[in-house]
Automatic annotation (TrEMBL):
Domain PorZ N-terminal beta-propeller: 49-202
Name the UniProt record assigns to this protein: Isoleucyl-tRNA synthetase
Top-level taxon: Bacteria
Keywords: Aminoacyl-tRNA synthetase, Ligase
Length: 754
């Protein structure tokens, strides 16, 4: 039986931080894909596997799986290189942006100062890492650098510059006192001496185009189709012609060659031993206890019996929109928008949608190897049949709505129907996003209905969609939001916003009414479109544009008025007013159970705001949190649990907020941390489980009120200051709380130790 533990690597006793900010915490979890295994190392019967966004640690004897990612220790995503020394228990991770993480039993240190050749403007991606003892050689697009694992700092670097052109070090390794590097022009070497940085002093051992190299008991390198053992200037070819070699791995006893079809093992003398296929393409392979394990591209680790080992996660990391359902179900669409939200973007991986059934992630075999081009912008459970999923395909030629049915026997989705609403036309009726009302009527927005957007309404009796073209010109639209019987629809290619009234007669479009907000209604003059919308508990519409935020108060009533007006939020600082998020592109807005707002800014991370937007409670970025990027394409809040999900093109992470479902009465009131010991904790004390509006008084043991406040949204943070603004003395403090009308009360104690 496989067991999954979401903790750090078994080699870590604890996590100490050496960077300026703590990125991860217990409040964060990742929903990354661990399918694409890039590199593996063996340590006493255990396999450490590096994937795109994290590492997992698999114990072959027990099935225990541990994972480590940016949510609980690492500092970045998009891993491109990895190595680990089983003797020193030190691992080194290289990222696409050129940074590294050094993992030791005491700490994880983030290294961003990799040497860069002067005048080099190419990729900073770390191509390969090879550890030998306390030294590692790091291969990059402009040469190699030596990294000292004890000192955690770089030593000499050799920039492969010849004739004004930098030569890429595909891979490199340390063997003896020499560094051997494979490039597209040959196997090159140099002793680790004073002339190491001078590229003209390097020796080309063998000319040719080579891809991979490794060394332990011996030195082995490869071209695309041939592998060689190298000894004292002599290269001896292994006795097999390979097909597109993906990796070369050496151990004290074995040589392991992985190509696109099979895994080949040889003894240390180069004599062929076994040929293994795990049923799919692998990036790498290793041996544990005489057994071959493949690091696959799409299924994690596989053994010779085709058994799979990996942490649970979606099929791929690309994510665009999230839809949450009862029983912890989740649907994730994998598409993308481009060119002012109008053009198609076809991902070369051609992903579909990912489904979490509450306990495990499932992926439909329909998408595997399918030649149909998919750009899925939304996927929803059919409100009329919970065993069906509908998704929008926003492409040329294969555009339309697709219906799938869940097959419980094999935990798969079977294709049912493709609703191609305009045959033989490559450009129009491109569906975007779904929404349903409380009568289970299903709506879908369409872009490019011969120059205009449109709305589609599902006709249950005909099993088809009735499409109503907008009279207002706007060829691109976003996913609708339904509120008070109205469809609220951002228009990303024009400085307008539409509200569509279907008059509670979904399939009768003759009486439908369109309301359009324009620049004259208050949108910024430099805005080129509206991108997002959310309705808060006061009934105000928060509209995100590509040039700021606008609020339509009492939205359902005002939109039908003679001249509705949208307004920015003005923050006063030092007597001067400043517009909140002025000129920022607002990708997504979400409202939690406490009426607080989560706002995603393109390139600016996510802001968590007070109900009125006047205060920034938190600001999460790629730099200070586990967010994979600073452009979050979707935010969803599970109001029952308070968990907040963030979708990005680089993966999904979740944050456990302090605000869950709240009402007029108290829930389970919890204070943490408690006791508050200043030497261990210098932040604010959180009180959660409060009523929607709570009157708070905090008194000392003598009954003196030291702090009072009104909390909204179900929780409150006290900075431990008294009414004079200074920190309270050590002692026991009593928290006295009543709800808004005084009908419910609660108390708590806080112990403070200074």
């Amino acid at each position: 039986m496989k067991k999954l533990y979401i903790i750090s690597l078994g080699i870590l006793a604890s996590l100490q931080w050496t960077n300026a900010q703590t990125i991860s915490s217990k409040k964060w979890t990742d929903l990354f894909s661990y399918n694409n295994v890039l590199a593996m190392k063996e340590d006493n019967g255990k396999i450490i596997a590096a994937t795109e966004n994290g590492i997992f640690y698999y114990t072959t004897s027990t099935g225990e799986i541990t994972k480590l990612s940016k949510a609980n220790g690492l500092h970045d995503v998009k891993i491109t290189a990895f190595d680990y020394n089983s003797k020193t228990k030190i691992g080194l991770i290289g990222y696409q942006n050129g940074s590294m993480d050094v993992i030791t039993p005491q700490e994880i240190k983030y290294v961003v100062d990799i040497p860069i050749a002067a005048g080099y403007n190419g990729s900073k991606k770390i191509n390969h890492i090879s550890i030998t003892g306390d030294q590692a050689v790091v291969s990059v697009g402009y040469g190699v650098s030596i990294f000292n694992l004890k000192k955690k700092e770089f030593g000499d670097s050799a920039f492969f510059l010849s004739g004004g052109i930098y030569e890429t070090a595909n891979e490199a390794t340390i063997f003896g006192n020499k560094v051997y590097a494979v490039t597209n022009t040959g196997l090159k070497s140099h002793e680790m001496d004073t002339t190491f940085p001078v590229f003209s002093t390097w020796t080309t051992e063998i000319p040719g185009s080579f891809k991979h190299i490794d060394s332990e008991a011996g030195l082995v390198f490869s071209s695309a189709t041939a592998a060689f053992m190298y000894n004292n200037g002599t290269a001896t070819a292994l006795p097999i012609t390979f097909g597109n070699i993906h990796d070369v791995v050496t151990t004290t006893d074995n040589i392991i060659i992985t190509d696109q079809n099979r895994i080949y093992t040889f003894n240390s003398n180069g004599i062929a031993q076994t040929t293994v296929s795990v049923g799919e393409e692998c990036n790498t392979a290793t041996m544990v206890g005489g057994k071959v394990y493949g690091g696959t591209i799409l299924s994690g680790i596989k053994d010779e019996a085709n058994s799979t080992y990996k942490p649970s996660g979606p099929y791929l990391n690309y994510a665009y929109k999230i839809n949450l359902y009862d029983n912890n179900q989740m649907l994730v669409s994998s598409g993308a928008r481009g060119d002012r939200y109008g053009s198609q973007i076809i991902n070369p991986e051609n992903p579909g949608f990912y489904y979490f059934n509450g306990t495990e992630w499932l992926y439909s075999s329909y998408f595997i190897g399918n030649s149909t081009a998919f750009n899925i912008l939304d996927a929803v459970i059919n409100p009329m049949d919970n065993n069906e999923v509908l998704f929008t395909n926003y492409t040329y030629f294969t555009q339309g709505i697709y219906k799938m049915k869940y097959n419980s026997t094999n935990k798969d989705f079977d294709f049912v129907k493709h609703y191609d609403l305009v045959a033989n036309d490559a450009y129009y009726y491109r569906p975007v996003g779904f929404v349903s009302d409380n009568q289970n009527n299903l709506f879908v927005s369409f872009g490019f209905n011969f120059g205009n957007g449109s709305i589609g309404i599902y006709d249950k009796s005909a099993d088809n969609f009735v499409v109503k073209k907008f009279s207002f010109t706007s060829d691109a639209v976003q996913k609708p939001l339904l509120y008070e019987g109205l469809l609220w629809i951002p228009m990303p290619r024009t400085n307008n916003f539409m509200v569509y009234d279907y008059k509670n007669t979904p399939t009768n479009t003759s009486d439908d009414v369109e309301y359009v907000l324009k620049e004259s209604n208050g949108f910024a003059g430099n805005s080129k479109g509206t991108l997002s919308v959310a309705i808060d508990k006061s009934g105000d519409a928060w509209i995100g544009t590509d040039s700021g935020l606008r609020i339509l108060s009492n939205a359902a009533t005002e939109i039908k008025g003679t001249n509705p007006e949208v307004n920015p939020i003005i923050i006063e600082q030092g007597g001067l007013g400043e517009e909140l998020f002025r000129d920022a592109q607002i990708l997504q807005i979400e409202v939690d159970a406490g009426d607080h707002k989560w706002v995603s800014i393109d390139g600016g991370g996510v802001y968590y705001l007070s109900a009125d937007g006047q205060q920034t409670i938190k600001h999460f970025t790629k730099e200070n949190s586990p967010l994979p990027t600073n452009s979050v394409t979707d935010i969803k809040v599970d109001r029952k649990t308070g968990k907040v999900y963030f979708a990005t093109y680089s993966g999904i992470v979740a944050y456990q907020s302090d605000v869950s479902d709240v009402n007029s009465n108290f829930g389970n009131v919890v204070v943490y941390p408690n006791p508050v010991v200043y030497s261990n904790f210098k932040g604010k004390v959180t009180i959660k489980g409060l009523a929607e509006k709570t009157n708070i008084r905090i008194a000392d043991a003598a009954g003196n009120v030291v702090h009072s406040a009104v909390a909204r949204g179900g929780y409150y943070e006290w900075d431990l200051n008294n009414v004079k603004g200074t920190r309270v003395a050590s002692g026991i403090y009593f928290v006295l709380m009543t709800n808004e009308d005084g009908s419910d009360k609660a108390t708590a104690k806080i112990a403070v130790v200074n």
